[in-house]
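so my prof wants the structure for this chain in the tokens format not the other one, which i didnt know existed until like an hour ago. anyway here's the sequence
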Amino acid sequence: MKKMNYCPKCGSTVSYKTPKGDNHERAICDACGMVHYQNPLIVVGCVVESEGKILLCKRSIEPRYGFWTIPAGYMELGETLVDGAARETFEEACAKVEISHQFASVDVPDAGQVHIFFCGKLKGGFGVGEESLDTQLFSEEEIPWDDIAFRSGSFALKKYFEDRGENNGVHLYELRRSKS
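here's what i got, hopefully its the right format
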């Protein structure tokens, strides 16, 4: 993860120290003393089902341009997890969904992210959003497993098919870079 070099408040350099009463090293501005907390970003997504098939989007943006993914993206301030998952699905696949439940959570500490996936049903049609080259419905056997953009998406899809979308609790997973 990238370290902060300059204070967003005043533009001065920062030093990394543990503030009094804290137990983590933080970026602290050398000039104004502002303590900057850097916390994980939340990614929300939805495994969208329609007539036994799953909606996937082919990415038109980096990272992983041209690979398939579950509709997902960064949560925005002021929205709920469910609202974010529905918004991302609409932005990427022009699809409205009825979200039923959360079913997977993936910690990605090396990227400073937490990925949260929901199950949803397609309400009507779908199309190709601005961040997608293509969108398609796939049966489990048709999914291009070798061309799935992110390991968190592969995990979510595999858990979805294990449960068949039933609400059997939340599957937790942690992704870290291998040390080799």
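also thought this was worth mentioning. The longest helix spans residues 81-93.
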